[in-house]
Design goal:
Blueprint (H helix, E strand, L loop, with lengths): L1 H54 L5 H5 L13 H32 L3 H15 L2 H16 L4 H25 L3 H9 L4 H12 L1 H16 L3 H4 L20 H9 L4 H30 L6
Length: 296
Amino acid sequence: MAARTDTGTRLRFEPKRRLGRRKATNVIAIGLMGVCVLLAMVPLVSLLVYVIARGIGALSMTALTHAPAPSVDGGGGFGNAIVGTAILLAIASLVGIPWGVLTAIYLSEYAQGRLGRVVRFFSDVLTGIPTLVTGLVVYGLLVISLGSFSAIAGGVALGLIMLPIITRGSEEMLNLVPDSLREAGLALGMPKWKVILRIVLPTAAKGIVTANLLAIARASGETAPLLVTVLGSNFFTTKLLGTPIAALPLYIFQNATQPDPVKIRLAWAATLVLIAFILILSLLARLIGRGGRVSE
């Protein structure tokens, strides 16, 4: 009788012991993950604080609105680089966004079998190719044939960098749209292209916009492809062909290699502006994506 009582007591308390061990393991795992997150945040926050500390002192309206000037005149600013970056990103968006979204629609709605796998494979390959290679390809195709560096060449290079990011991100968003919505549209007699245009795309619109913003943020910081496609300039210009054009990444690269302390301070200020722009785009992408999840 006593043996049965002891056995019943052990069986009654064994689940509680297991539950206690699981809770302890869960707390330890969460603690370790928190430590890893903090370790990952330390270099990121340190980098951001360092850039702010070095660049905020040189940031002014003159720096934001004027073109570069000789150091004896105060160094000028990088307003021409801001304008050039805006032009390059606009061209890149016109090249990359329609092409990327249409490719994503094809992969999600039409591609079947081997062809779809091949397109996805090369999209993934393009994502991993060094951006300098993309710039060299555009240099051979456009810069040499047109006879000069230009905003068109730089915009096309950035658009090609954006293309695989937009394609794969948009495809994933389109794949999240429930098939029941497609079937409902087809059951009502709508052709497939109209189902895609009026049902699938509006449903996945927020996710597609998020992918586009992330691609623009990625392209805005590229320097290597611009070195061989737009070259850089010290003047304000809005010409798309026939002349080099300025860009923030190029301005930062060129000034950071100068022995002039004024130009180095302006390079830090331009770096701060570029990081702020990328940060704003990333936050917008997160805010839009938070409300863009599709559920059954």
